[in-house]
Amino acid sequence: MDFQHYFATRASRMKASEIRELLKLLDRPGVISFAGGIPDASYFPAKQFGAAFQDALNSETSGTALQYSISEGFRPLRQWLAAEMGKIGVPCTEDNIMITSGSQQALDYLGKMLLSPGDTALVNWPTYLGALGAFNAYEPRYDKLSINGNRSAADFASDAEAAGGRVKFAYLSADFSNPTGETVDRRGRENLIDTAEELDCVIIEDAAYQSLRYDGEVIPPILALEIERKGSIEECRTIYCGSFSKTLSPGLRIGWVCAAEPLISQMVLLKQAGDLHVSTVNQMAMAQVAEAYFDEHVDTLHRVYSERRDAMLAALVEMMPEGVEWTKPEGGMFVWMTLPAHVDTTEVFKIAIETENVAFVPGHSFFADGSGRNTMRLSFSCADQETIREGIRRLSKVIKTVL
Amino acid sequence: MDFQHYFATRASRMKASEIRELLKLLDRPGVISFAGGIPDASYFPAKQFGAAFQDALNSETSGTALQYSISEGFRPLRQWLAAEMGKIGVPCTEDNIMITSGSQQALDYLGKMLLSPGDTALVNWPTYLGALGAFNAYEPRYDKLSINGNRSAADFASDAEAAGGRVKFAYLSADFSNPTGETVDRRGRENLIDTAEELDCVIIEDAAYQSLRYDGEVIPPILALEIERKGSIEECRTIYCGSFSKTLSPGLRIGWVCAAEPLISQMVLLKQAGDLHVSTVNQMAMAQVAEAYFDEHVDTLHRVYSERRDAMLAALVEMMPEGVEWTKPEGGMFVWMTLPAHVDTTEVFKIAIETENVAFVPGHSFFADGSGRNTMRLSFSCADQETIREGIRRLSKVIKTVL
Q: B2, B4, B5, B6: best mutation site toward chain A, by most A Cβ within 10 Å?
């Protein structure tokens, strides 16, 4: 049977990720992978979660834990998150917060809420692949966000109009972004708010890695900077998307959106229509573990991941040939590497996995226009320092053969 | 700030549910509610879930339980479900199954996969409110599904074309449906398959209540009947949506879709873009509890809920005035009541809650065209027999005043 002809027009924009196919090659012995962008499972607070699930499922609260619950999310978790947001310059209440099935779901729902077909989304070149995947279903046009760049808001607006829509939002991860590991400085954040004001569009701030700063100066979230200007979150156009997936656990699928109440109310309607609510028992367990243990756990991750980042940067300096450049992230999980323009990293990937058993993610998938063929993403989160050193040794060997 | 003008055109179809507002009135002492369509929390297998979460979070498997996992879903759970589907006439493998965040998410993703704006969805008048909520975001036109009715496939097709699209699917719950409690007989199911063949459209079979049959003859799922005709699930246009929410627990948010592999593959792309995957630890816990305990637990629910259904039907016969009609469900959670045409059940609701402290859901929200103002849904799942009798006494008193 041919099922294709049943599909909506938007389905043509939903393609299997090339990366996903590449990653299937990694299931082989002895491979050193810098490909996955996932936390190291050996550091999950399993005991704390075990105890928290036991507590949620005790005889007094199990009826609540296993039952339907409200679409906004478990109130004590939202209260804890509101207090945490306050600590990073975002005074708000639990009514400014909705719990999502990971921040990926926030991106899906924001695309659904904001994008009519042909509207423009401003994204970095490169940007988080999963954001493109989420937005694609709503058939946007992409334009290249240029923070501190020379394109004016009027340019963005007229190009969007010529394409039959308007600029609905700018999407970015401002701290140690996936895939580049780079951070937008304070001036860049202020410029972005100015541009969004001129365009009268929303800012989607993806803060998935924000807690993972290892050194350098803390820069307030974009939402905090906008609140500084306007006095209240209720006057702000920035929608902040947070996640526990890079800190306590991705397996519980818990993220959150923090924004002005009318935006949260609309998101709650989408959540009701979409999947009703996030797992009740998971929200209860997460609330307990986060309250008792978040700060301590993040300290552990800072120590572990910063050592790995240092090991990777040191090995790169020592072993990579001339002509290869890379970012120096102050946090997160990623180093972004740029090879000379003639090199295609998809070809390098095949050679690397076949001859040296080392893997990374070719960079062009992170570009809305498929450019960036000479780039690659390296993750340092899941290998110990010795393995990182050996992996960079293997990779540099491969790269030397293609230069 | 006015945030409305940022929203996509589809957002105008996403409205707050009137029911949800009404249900807020129920948070008062002494109320007897037949409004909620939820399982009785006192029967959740809390101990079994407690043990299963402990097992998933033990030192050997916690790294898996708390980590990201594949979008298709946890393989052992899909294998168990494939075997269960085999028992009800749907031979298939785990590759025919994807795990969703409740069957609500399956409906959302199916709308997203199938509906272009202006396409037609055939639904019952009345139908599950949450299905309308899920589909609305994709801007369909609705037409009235008439099983065993006199409208031909050609009629449906030409009306859909006149509206600028085509019939993409027929959606229904064939067993003890929400809201009517009614079951489509075998001939009706065969007719529906015939109509779908003629229309060349998909059938979405919402089987949320299918395990909750208390008496009467078991009728094979629509998907099973289509497989009988065609020999293999791979030739079938029926997409089966199952759920654990009415049996083991809604709080874990676990449902599943069972269909031909190309349809599942496309759904997996939507899941990847939408929220990556269902909570890993929840899928592991559900797999363990389902395998060890599903049949025994469903037996308990049959006993409890059938007694409550009997109590409600007996009280209705005894106490309701002439001119009031209701369904006699063979399973599920709902009785559907029809009052004389001049009665508006939204008005009855207000009187009932204010004067007699008894609640139900006014029926018109379940109609895609807002008709059915003289209907109401009564749920018998959450009250014991004595309370049901007292609630029906109160309700009949109110109804007598408005006839």
A: B6
Q: How far is residue B358's CA from residue B31's CA, in Å, rounded to a whole number? A: 6
- Chain B touched by A271 (CB under 8 Å): no
Angle at A160 (CA atoms; ends A154, A163), nearest 5 degrees? 145
Are A304 and A40 spatial neighbours (Cβ–Cβ below 8 Å)? yes
* Angle, vertex CA A236, rays to CA A234 and CA A238, nearest 5: 130
Number of other CB atoms surrounding residue B158 within 10 Å: 11
- φ, ψ dihedrals at B11, nearest 5°: -65, -25
Which residue does chain A place closest to B111, by CA atoms? A8
CA dist A325 → A375, B184, B310 (Å)? 10, 66, 75
- What lies within 8 Å, CB to CB, of A75 at 6+ separation is A94
- B276 within 8 A of B71, measured Cβ to Cβ: yes
How far from B75 is each of B69, B245, B267, CA to CA, in Å? Answer: 10, 20, 16
For B273, which of A100, A108, A250 is closest by C-beta distance? A108
Domains identified in chain B and CATH numbers: 4-45+296-402 (3.90.1150.10), 64-292 (3.40.640.10)
Q: For an interface test with A, which of B20, B272, B275 has the most A Cβ atoms less than 10 Å from its Cβ?
A: B275
Report CA A377 to chain centroid distance, whole Å. Answer: 14
Please write the tens of the pLDDT for every residue from A384-396: 999 999 999 999 9
Interface subset of B 329-348, CB within 8 angstroms of A: none
CB contact under 8 A, A273 and B16: no
Cβ(B256)–Cβ(B297) below 8 Å: no
Would the pTM of this model clear 0.90, i.e. be above it? yes
Tens-place pLDDT, residues A248-267: 999 999 999 999 999 999 99
Residue spans of beta strands (DSSP E) within A207-306:
238-243, 255-258
**Complex-level ipTM beyond the 0.85 threshold:** yes
C-beta separation of B268 from B98 below 8 A: yes
Q: Are A285 and A64 in contact (CB under 8 A)?
A: no
**B300 alpha-carbon distance from chain centroid:** 21
pLDDT of residue B15: 81
